């Protein structure tokens, strides 16, 4: 519980602010910066206790399974001479894993279920596809490739609700001109994702949740940006999200299993979904999803 509280407080403290895009305003951020550093110190002190506990368990051979943290103990950093990550490095890596690996995936699933509630005919078709593909057994990862509607639904979720508003910054290595603007070397470029995935010049009815756009041949998109940048929920190029593969597997699997087991309905009944969002590390629903579930009759 304390870990969750600390992580939430830190994420709120480091939310993108105006000075991130106008560095000249940085001096006016003194109090917020100090607050973020204090929270960071508190997080480090808290998590280091778990790290030491795991080290001790490994030394005394009392561990029965391999963990993510164990892989970090084996890391080597080569910068002049070979070193191992410091405790602060380990805390940072664990924090990134927890935030980027869970918050964004959880947000995508919440947005997805909300869209399926708002579009019951799509939810019904998805259930029919799941039922015809796997029968009464639980969906597993191997089934995903056989379900084209499921893949289209997840792609449309990521188009309509990318995990964040901006990709990681990209640096300009050669001077160029873009839409009449001179872009010098050394400038950091930020890509606003909804501006791409909701562009009416690229997409027909961009505000509409329509997985069929990917099935009918009307439109297509590669979420990695390799075949053309029409959507890039995980970024592109060498700075693409390293957890993209795992995240998409989890979203496909969770959406499929949740629809397989339950029919999802609005709560209160007949109410409309509120698709307003807010940025808390990931873009989440401003009003957390409230839903009724009805067990499927097998």
From TrEMBL:
Q: Which residues bind heme?
A: 241
Q: Which GO terms describe its cellular component?
A: membrane
Coiled-coil ranges from the UniProt annotation = none
Which cofactors, by name? Answer: heme
State the InterPro entries in the record.
Cyt_P450, Cyt_P450_CS, Cyt_P450_E_grp-I, Cyt_P450_sf, Plant_metabolite_P450s
Q: Which family is it part of?
A: Belongs to the cytochrome P450 family.
Name of the protein in its database record: Putative cytochrome P450
């Amino acid at each position: 519980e304390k870990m969750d509280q600390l992580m939430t407080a830190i994420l709120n403290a480091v939310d993108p602010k105006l000075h991130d895009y106008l560095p000249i305003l940085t001096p006016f951020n003194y109090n917020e910066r100090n607050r973020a550093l204090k929270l960071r110190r508190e997080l480090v002190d808290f998590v280091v206790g778990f790290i030491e506990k795991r080290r001790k368990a490994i030394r005394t051979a009392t561990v029965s399974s391999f963990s993510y943290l164990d892989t970090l103990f084996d890391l080597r950093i080569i910068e002049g001479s070979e070193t191992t990550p410091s405790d602060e490095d380990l805390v940072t890596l664990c924090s990134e894993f927890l935030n980027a690996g869970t918050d964004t995936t959880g947000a995508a699933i919440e947005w997805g279920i909300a869209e399926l509630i708002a579009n019951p005919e799509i939810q019904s078709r998805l259930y029919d596809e799941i039922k015809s593909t796997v029968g009464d057994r639980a969906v597993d990862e191997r089934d995903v490739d056989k379900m084209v509607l499921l893949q289209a639904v997840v792609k449309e979720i990521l188009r309509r609700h990318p995990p964040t508003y901006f990709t990681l910054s990209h640096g300009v290595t050669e001077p160029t001109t873009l839409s009449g603007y001179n872009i010098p070397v050394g400038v950091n470029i930020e890509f606003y994702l909804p501006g791409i995935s909701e562009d009416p010049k690229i997409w027909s009815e961009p505000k509409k949740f329509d997985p069929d756009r990917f099935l009918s041949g009307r439109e297509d998109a590669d979420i990695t940006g390799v075949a053309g940048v029409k959507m890039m929920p995980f970024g592109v190029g060498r700075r693409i999200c390293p957890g993209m593969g795992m995240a998409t597997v989890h979203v496909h699997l969770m959406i499929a299993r949740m629809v397989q087991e339950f029919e999802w309905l609005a709560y209160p009944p007949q109410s409309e979904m509120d698709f307003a969002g807010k940025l808390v590390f990931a873009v989440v629903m401003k009003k957390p999803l409230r839903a009724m579930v009805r067990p499927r009759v097998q």
